Amino acid sequence: ILNVEQSPQSLHVQEGDSTNFTCSFPSSNFYALHWYRWETAKSPEALFVMTLNGDEKKKGRISATLNTKEGYSYLYIKGSQPEDSATYLCARYTDKLIFGTGTRLQVFP
Amino acid sequence: GAGVSQSPRYKVAKRGQDVALRCDPISGHVSLFWYQQALGQGPEFLTYFQNEAQLDKSGLPSDRFFAERPEGSVSTLKIQRTQQEDSAVYLCASSSYTGQETQYFGPGTRLLVL
Questions:
Q1: Is residue B79 packed enough to be buried (19+ CB in 10 Å), middle (13-18) or exposed (0-12)?
Q2: Distance between CA atoms of B97 and B31, rounded to whole angstroms?
Q3: C-alpha distances in angstroms, A28 versus A1, A25, B11?
Q4: Which residues of B fall within a CB distance of 8 Å from A99?
Q5: Which residue in B has a C-alpha nearest to residue A40's C-alpha?
Q6: How many other β-carbons are positioned within 10 Å of the β-carbon of residue B4?
Q7: Which segment of A25-29, A98-102, B78-82 scores lowest on mean pLDDT?
Q8: Measured between CA atoms, how close is A38 to chain B, in angstroms?
């Protein structure tokens, strides 16, 4: 993996469904992995900054895990709500943030 | 407290026109970053300031792009002789010290060059 890659590109789920996305990144020279949520017409909002292999972080119904040795992070949303609809961006930090292209989540009532 | 603010929120420019985009970071934040987000892409790093010092400008796409932060707070990104390929959302972010920490983003300036 040379760049930060996110999958899937987009996702449509029903309210109440749980969902997860993947962020893959180069495992060498790792410093930190950032997750952001970006709702249309708003500022990107920081969710997590993860630095240690095996890190698990949680914020309400959203949680994330980190595997720095194999170069991936998962973001989980439990019981999706319409207000969770947004683009979720991950970014690898070395001396600057390198972003993936994001996963666009739409939650239907 | 107040977050990061950017102005204008929207800018339409004719090709060849110069534009200036402003960023007001969170008060006291040492680090300030500019990113460019083209349609369908993730934000791409442009430049980084620590206080008034521009420590990294490796992401600026051409010498038509210039950024400054003269007093270590407000920053301006200037684009000279705009081209259609400059159309994008320009995001500003600040962090309390280093870029490894949480970066707090403004809402962006959407630039359209006709």
A1: buried
A2: 6
A3: 10, 9, 40
A4: 35, 42-44
A5: B107
A6: 21
A7: A25-29
A8: 10
